[in-house]
Amino acid sequence: MQTIIEPFKIKMVEPIRFTTPQERADILRRAHYNPFHIHAEEVLIDLLTDSGTSAMSAAQWGAMMIADESYSGSRSFFKFEKVVREITGLRHIIPTHQGRAAEKILFSVMGGAGKIIPSNNHFDTTRGNIEYTGAEALDLVIDEGRIPSSQHPFKGNLDLAKLESLLDRAASQIPLGMLTVTNNTGGGQPVSMANIRAVSEALRRRGIPFFLDACRFAENAYFIKRREPGYADKTPLEIAQEMFSYCDGATFSGKKDGLSNIGGFLAVNDDALAEQARNLLILTEGFPTYGGLAARDLEALAIGIQEALEERYLDYRHACVEYFAQKLRAGGIQIVEPPGGHAIYLDARAFLPHLPVEQYPGQALVCALYETGGVRGVEIGSVMFGKRDPQTGAESYAQMDLVRLALPRRVYTQSHVDYLGEVILETYRRREEIGGLRFTYQAPILRHFTARFEPTASA
């Protein structure tokens, strides 16, 4: 059969609140035109993030009921540790309450003023945790990764020539190198196995540890299976195991490809680094066998990480995203191509060409989608990655202004996606009516979470 159906049955439902356009306009004003400030019950379809928003399986819920909540040495931890080791091959598995906690610990130990940490693209919390230590988070994604219309199959790849140039001039300043798989900032784009291997070899020749930001490792493995020669007959698990074999450590948010509502880990091979990380973990998260989590969350994670590698689930997951993309293409909407594994990224500058970057077209489009149909997305552009100089007040802007519509795993159905297509096309029809925004408040780090805006005079 040609139709790829959901590989599950729905056993529990949650009602959705419907609002009118006028109500949503009022809500936006009260939220200072930042959807992060909108109450979840005021959202019809919530695509703000795929992080922690998955629907968990019956197996996950059942495992939570038999969790061992012992403070130290819980059997739930050892079950979790066994699963992560089997997939990653890494020796020290350190649980944390979510991915950014793993980043905070890693960069507190390895970051610092004068250091440079290269990656394809660092996402927001990764960059924030690096820069908080005084280090520089440097993006070296290939040029195709900065062009929304490019059809390169692995637009998340790191530019090897740029990496070698950096290593030639500043190897002593680099405590570790990273790759984000898939590359969230650049449109959820995958990284090829060849690129993972080459980056690993380049760093290890200089004695520099190599880490994966592995939040969406299963989706990246699936893309390798579908697009990279030599992997079609391998399972997603086998591909994931090879990916991890090239790294010295990994940070992971279980809220993505762990199919769980909370949790994550830091995994490393180096004994001394693991000892430092565990000491800091005790200070900030808890004992090393629970790491800020209830044991029931470790149980859910252990099962969710395995379920995320099931090929039938991954077929369904990627079919949903491609179906969404086809509806938008048919309506003339420009998106980041080819579509990634967890989200559709609208090209906000192409959608709203009348708005200059100084009026934040991505944020304006996010607000317009909410007002039109109650859909909440997130800006991935100059609000999230731009900066204001604290001395001069001058703004710098991102290379792309995108709107990410992240599909929670196992939550929405085909009819929800059909509705999303209608909302976006209706917003596109009235795009010339959409005005720009300006900041009225921004925090010095990760400003997009708490920022406040108002319409520009021209709006």
Backbone CA Rg: 21 Å
At the first level of CATH, what is the class of the largest domain? Alpha Beta
Specify the CATH architecture of the largest domain: 3-Layer(aba) Sandwich
* Helix share bin: 25-40%
Beta percentage is 5-15%
Mean pLDDT, to the nearest integer, reads 96
Instruction: Tell how many strands the DSSP assignment holds.
Output: 16
Distance between the termini: 50 Å
Biggest beta sheet attributes: 5 strands, mixed
The assigned structural class equals alpha/beta
The DSSP helix count reads: 16
Give me the CATH fold name of the largest domain: Aspartate Aminotransferase, domain 2
Spatial sequence of strands, sheet with the most strands: 2-8-7-6-5
What is the number of domains?
A: 2
CATH superfamily of the largest domain: Type I PLP-dependent aspartate aminotransferase-like (Major domain)
The stretches of 5 or more residues where confidence is low (pLDDT under 50) are none
